[in-house]
Amino acid sequence: MTATSRETEGRTAPRKEARDRSRDGRRNRFETHLLTHYRPVWQAAQRSRWLHRRLNSTLTDLAVLKAPPRPEPLSTKSPYTSWDSLTDRSWVGRHLPPTAGPPGSMPPPQEVAELFRREGEGKYCARSTALLPAFAQWFTDGFLRGHAATGDPRRTDSPHTLDMCQLYGDREEVTACLRTFEGGRLKSRMMDGAEFPPALCRDGEILDEFKAIRPVRFDEVPKDCVDTLFACGGDRVHAHVGPMALNVLFLREHNRVAGLLGAAHPEWDDERVFQTTRNTLIVMMIRVMLEEYINHITPYHFGFVLDPVRVDRGVWHRENWATIEFSLVYRWHSLIPSTYRIAGQDLPLARTIANGQLVLDRGLGPLFDDLSRQPAGLSGLFNTDELLLPIEARSVAVGRELRLASYNDYRVHYGFPPVTHPRQITGDSRVQEALLDLYGGVDGIDLYVGLFAEEPEPGAIFGRLLERIISVDAFSEALNNPLLAPRLFAPSTFSQEGIQVVRETRSFSDLVHRNLPEESGRYLVSLGSAAGDTRSPAR
């Protein structure tokens, strides 16, 4: 059965008309047209190193300044500005002030979650592979975090910067229990010639040496999977086979780089090798995130690059503070397939959760190949697996608890005119009717719903508002990292060998293929489907 027949099975296909673009904004339409057309011109511009760097700086500024730069006047601490709300980052940031409170007529979150329910196997994305949502989840779990101790949506354990706590842990005691304290390495085990993290548990209990690790929802892990969990710094990396594989990859890369630095600098002690390796991996990850991941999810013919020389020149160069809006933007549950094809077998989503044995049995190279040959789900409503619907309901509920402004209010904040009819959100008649049935109009639409109701432009993966919020926060989140500051981005911070590692790494494929057993072959490792991405090869 084809994807098209799956999505229409059992019901009449909705009418799909051209979306009404009258409320996109003239300048927004012009900028999008310019960046998504004239491929030969963009290719020529990128052949000039000087011009590429200037355009890279200008377009980065253009993306980040679509919203007022930090610091934000408010956090979830209070509805007014105070010194604590400006400095205490245990509170979640916010872009807009809280509303007076949702009207009583708002549909309940459980009912709203039905807007996300997938039918059958769902709809698939022509441009992206299943590796995209896997990396997005692993990447954002490092800094878009709740408050484990209380569950209070106003509070956060986030470091508010990219520090790879998914690998190293967010507390000193977690980092310590993962280290060997020899040669700057992390603990690992060898299985059939390949390196993996140590087991977290034995006989259903967390091992004493890893008691500092507190996995989220550990009591919900299936009993037959508990002993397959890996000992890792992140408390959420066991959530799915994709993030688990990525943590294995970065563990191998850490120990590989530590070996390089230790050999080049025998006078260094364990601590210096470890810390310098960590510095190197953080910036290496930022480069891959920017040059492969961000370039994939933006539909432009221009390829962004990491250029620390120009980072601190932007007026947006301020201390990071993760916001609730950014957290909601990154809940890409519709991109997660209901079935994963691994080693030639179709596995339901539930079988891939907290199942480290899949990673051990399949091996890293073949598993990345499997994820790179399977399409991701299509971003949007009516395309989330039933298993994830409670998370969709909770996302709507969190927005209400924090009294987030409406979808239309956020459009205005990010430089779009407010919509007046659902046809300006999407050309899909079914989505239009569902929004009108639930909300009675467009002014009360929850931000979370509006983000995923928006129809992507041709060639794009996400709707315009979601794409813009990502651009504003993701660029500034990555490029405000202290390791990219002019005085720090130097061999004294990374070593000359570390700098070379960063220079040699531009893709996940680079990372995977230098961290496989010698007898391994070549594997497909890609966020995007070549057949579905017709943009400039210069990217």
TrEMBL record:
UniProt region (Disordered), positions on chain: 1-28
InterPro entries assigned: Haem_peroxidase_animal, Haem_peroxidase_sf, Haem_peroxidase_sf_animal, Oxylipin_biosynth_metab
Molecular-function annotations in GO: heme binding; metal ion binding; oxidoreductase activity, acting on single donors with incorporation of molecular oxygen, incorporation of two atoms of oxygen; peroxidase activity; prostaglandin-endoperoxide synthase activity
The keyword Heme appears for this protein: no
Keywords: Dioxygenase, Iron, Metal-binding, Oxidoreductase
Record's GO cellular component terms: cytoplasm
SUPFAM superfamilies named among the record's database cross-references: Heme-dependent peroxidases (SSF48113)
Name of the protein: Heme peroxidase
Lineage of producing organism: Bacteria, Bacillati, Actinomycetota, Actinomycetes, Kitasatosporales
